[in-house]
Write a structure and sequence with these properties.
Layout (H helix, E strand, L loop, with lengths): L2 E5 L4 H13 L2 E6 L9 E5 L5 H8 L4 E4 L9 H22 L3 E5 L11 H14 L4 E5 L3 E3 L7 H8 L2 E4 L4 E2 L1 E3 H11 L8 E3 L9 E2 H11 L5 E4 L2 H15 L7 H7 L3 E2 L18 H15 L3
Parallel strand pairs: 1-2, 1-4, 2-3, 4-5, 5-6, 6-11, 7-10, 8-13, 9-14
Antiparallel strand pairs: 9-12
Helix pairs in contact: 1-6, 2-3, 3-4, 5-7, 7-10
């Protein structure tokens, strides 16, 4: 039986990976900073990305590594480097010490435009480390990920509930449901012809979603007629200044994120789609958004 060592298993995407792994009967070794409830097929290993001993224990007996953990928001560039660059280097080193050759790395579409944001630069640097590692690597650049348990897109669903969805200026984006992404990540850990490839998976919608289209989709998921409201960049920059003043290091709308959000093209490249014989999306976003909205309501998040 294939044993997979996973970082980031306690996060949003990682939770969906564990669900999919259980359905597939896979054995998982998962890194965690704090105690977790027992789970069938999962061996929890205490540690973090800066803990060499913990990483060595994580790798023991594993056949492949799925590196999901990373930082999506930080108060400065040093925070992104620590979480996304140094963290990746530490995981690669531990995998090498354990003699594990297979490495699947979760990056981001932001790495495509490293000049835009510190986040994007850190993800691009992490990709370079993986590509130079000498391992049998595959890199996945997900677009925006949504689904049950996600706190990032939750804010958009809340806005849709109140019938006004504030958006970045004009542009287009791709999106993927977390379960679909999780299925791909696990498939890649045991797919030889994906070695040395970089994939940009999405929901299958050609040319992606305009921001307006996605806002209207969220409205339908919430059974609301919504007003898509594009926000000028200057307004978003002012809002980020205010968020940092009010929430400090916990601010979500930082200047770095404004630069990222305002880029007009976050559509996955057609030539970087995973081949159909490896994976195809199963969750249309119209249906997935409704399921996510239902989950948020059931959990009292809305």
């Amino acid at each position: 039986m294939t044993v997979i060592a996973i970082t980031g298993a306690t996060g949003f995407v990682g939770g969906h990976v564990l669900d999919q792994a259980h359905n597939l009967g896979l054995e998982i070794r998962a890194l965690t900073r704090r105690m977790q409830p027992p789970r069938d097929g999962v061996t929890w290993v205490g540690g973090s990305l800066d803990d060499a001993d913990g990483l060595d224990q994580l790798m023991a007996g594993a056949d492949a590594v799925l590196h999901i953990a990373g930082i999506i928001n930080a108060p400065d560039e040093a925070g992104f480097i620590a979480g996304n660059v140094t963290g990746t280097a530490n995981v690669l080193a531990a995998a090498a010490r354990a003699g594990i050759g297979r490495f699947v790395h979760v990056s981001s579409l932001a790495a495509r435009e490293p000049s835009l944001s510190a986040y994007g630069r850190s993800k691009a640097q992490s990709e370079a480390l993986v590509q130079q590692s000498g391992m049998a690597w595959t890199i996945v650049r997900p677009p925006a990920v949504y689904g049950a348990g996600d706190r990032e897109t939750l804010e958009l669903f809340r806005m849709a509930k109140h019938r006004v969805v504030m958006l970045p200026p004009g542009g287009a984006m791709s999106i993927i449901e977390a379960g679909d992404l999780a299925r791909l990540l696990l498939q890649l850990t045991d797919t030889a012809d994906s070695i040395g490839q970089m994939y940009e998976p999405d929901d299958g919608k050609l040319e992606g979603w305009t921001h307006r289209e996605f806002a209207l989709c969220l409205g339908r998921a919430m059974d609301r007629s919504v007003l898509p409201l594009p926000m000028p960049r200057k307004i978003m920059e002012w809002a980020s200044w205010l968020d940092v003043r009010l929430r400090g290091p916990k601010a979500k709308l930082t200047a770095d994120r404004v630069a990222y959000f305002c880029h007009p093209d976050w559509v996955c490249s057609a030539h970087r789609q995973p081949p159909a014989h490896i994976w195809e999306p199963r969750m249309p976003t119209e249906r997935g958004a409704r399921l996510a909205a239902r989950w948020y309501r059931a959990e009292g998040w809305l």
